[in-house]
Amino acid sequence: MNKIYTVIAFFCLATFVNAQVAKNNTPLSRAYFHEQIDRTQKDILALPGITGDLNYAATGKIDSLQAAIEANAKMDNNNKIKFLRGLNEALGEYVSACRGKRDSVAILPDLVNVFAQCLPLELNNESIEGIVTQYSYQIEQIIISNFAYSKNAGIEAIKNIALLKYLKVHPEKIYDILRTHPGLPFTDSLIIIAAHRDPQATYDNAAAYDALADSIHHCDDPLVKIISQMARMKTGRQLFPFLDDLYHDKTTFEKIASVINDSAKYYKLLVKTEIDYADRVRQKDTPMAMKDLTLKLAFNANDIYVSQINALHESPDNVRFKIIDNLSPEELYYLAVLCEEEIYTSSYVKGVYPRIFKKMQKGDSLLMNVRFDHFKKFIKMAANYNTLDDFLKRMDKDNAELLMKAFVKGLDKTNSLEDAVDVANSFASVNDKALRKLILTEVQYNLQKAKDAGNTRGKNIYGILNILFLSMDTTNRVDVSKLLGIPPVYFVSNKNLQDTSGKIIVQQFTYGDKDGETNFNSFISSVSNSNWKITNNPEWVTVSSTHGTHVVIYTNKPLDEKKSLDDKAQHDLGDYLFSNDLNPVIVIHRGHSYYLPSTLKQLVSSAQVILLGSCGGYQSLNKVLTRCPTAHIVASKQVGSGSVNEPIINAVLETVRQGKDLNWPALWNNLGKLSLSKDLFEDYVPPYKNLGALFIMAYNRMLENE
Prior knowledge:
An eight-stranded mixed β-sheet has the order 3-4-5-2-6-7-8-10. The protein has a two-stranded antiparallel ribbon with strand order 1-9. By secondary structure, the protein is of the alpha/beta class. The chain is globular. Helix 33 links the parallel strand 6 and strand 7. The chain has four domains: 2-169, no CATH class; 233-373, no CATH class; 383-478; 491-705, Rossmann fold (3-Layer(aba) Sandwich).
């Protein structure tokens, strides 16, 4: 039965083909290839953008080329099949590339022309290199792999030229290609291009012991020779940050080598070079290896200085900060801006910042001396540590205004929201009314500019900042939640904190150092009354309310940190809460800033209220919001103190126990009336003043709505 169907199908096909042959006077052996081309032409016409000249190229020009192949008396049947098949293959590759958006539809006329021009050369066994290499890389790629021209004498040369064109567009691929294609005729040219584009990659490849490394070492280009020399030296990594100065004869290997073994002198040289490079950047010149210089400077700043003053946090200041006493203001500046993630609050507030201005009175002089390198980062840190007002007062009023205008400008031009969040946080730290008004005016100017230009990202960023900044003045009566579509920022509903059984679950993280023991004992003392019941467990305690709303507090015991028993207790408690479907909605961190990363790693997404009792907890807002995007966060910008933490914690717990909502302005007003250390309390930021956090919430909500 199958054979019968096969015969019938073949008979029908033969009848159809014979009819076409009769119609077109084309032999049966080539009719199939013409039909394939016709089908591919239909695919081309279906591509978006095939109009006008492209439409003619897809129909008339291809039809003419088919006819020319058929009419060519110099071709035998095999050659005609060869070129018809090759033409269809080229057109099919064009369709695939256009569908995959690798090529533009606009190359079609050139593709047909190239195919036609190469045809007589191929027939005469002549190279097609001179024709093909006049056209784009995309067309070269189609011809290189084409059936009709794959054995042409010029193919290898075309491949090399096409590869060169590709690598000029994608220089980041140069070393990958050279590693897999040794012996290319233009290897030196490519190495020179790569060395100027990415000196670090050149150094890494030159440091190896293979054929590519040999090619780099035999290249006579001056820059490549300097990199090659470094790559074979033991101190090469320490020399590399000074590549640009070495290349331009501003220094020598010997001068750098003379300070390499003295960590303080080497750090000073790194700072000097960083400032020189920053000055060139301001003049629209980018030094080679500047990124590597900054990374090396950051590493040494932390390794030599910051890690040490952090480690001595319990030592007297004269002992702790002795190592940085001899640093210049500029050298201290880079300790701050390049070690933002590592530096402890006390290291900055008590050590680095005051020592900068002990040796230099003017803030604008400092920024001019460092050529405004990383100035936005310095302003951000000053705002986050509550030293911005002090910093701005150290410069002329006009200069302070220009600085803050520059700080606010171009927030929509970056790939992240970091600068916009920094501006939001900084505004809340400015107490000077005139300066606040200036920043607000600048935000509104940029907002209008974005609107006029139809710049959606700019409208979003500056629009949110405008609303947040206006809300800081209560006389404006700005409803942030309503205008930005985010949860209420002034209060947290007691009902929303309760789980399905009516309980409010609280988790407190305690650490096993001396301060942790003190904090734990103080907490137990505060809940040792008739309103609470305490239940002990080997690793944690459970504190349950006996009156009012059912509040349950779980806090791990401050077990020996040297044996990591506190860490084990926290994780065991976390496992217990998870296994019993107990989801903390209030999370409290009690411990120094260097313990905070551990707490944040264990932070649960159910947390709605987060109290960060450590020094500088405010620096970690972004990390908290990554886990808990709508959380209300209380944190200090400077020193976290038990004398302030405990009243805040007690006020929050007592408020929810009594079944009341957390009304932050009212709660904060009441706390301000207590006999707390005014300076310390003013460094704590309540949720409704966490403008950076509110900005992130609002921007994410805006993107969701769009």
